[in-house]
Write a structure and sequence with these properties.
Immunoglobulin-like, four-stranded antiparallel beta sheet, 7 strands, about 50% strand
């Protein structure tokens, strides 16, 4: 039996277009991460589902006064937490 390895969020980044901000990245895991939920917290909160290509994205309306950190985290089906990358807007 192989040990369970924590999922990893890669290339967590944001882009802003007009009043919309998109958070994006991808997840690797020793199990298939399809359908895993990525949770965002900080100055914006929400969730995104990992797709068939292991990528996720989340779009939200951004106000000019929004400045600060957003953190992403996910877990595998056994509850093992990923790394927690962040972006600063």
């Amino acid at each position: 039996m192989f040990p369970n390895v924590a999922p990893v969020i890669h290339d967590f980044a944001f882009s802003i277009e007009g009043n919309w901000c998109t958070l994006r990245g991808w997840v690797s895991d020793d199990q298939n991460p399809l359908g895993d939920i990525v949770v965002f917290s900080g100055i914006a909160s929400g969730v995104a589902m990992v797709g068939a290509d292991f990528h996720f994205s989340y779009v939200f309306h951004i106000m000019p006064e929004f400045h600060g950190e957003i953190i992403a985290v996910t877990s595998d089906y056994m509850g093992l937490l990923s790394n927690q990358p962040s972006v600063t807007i």
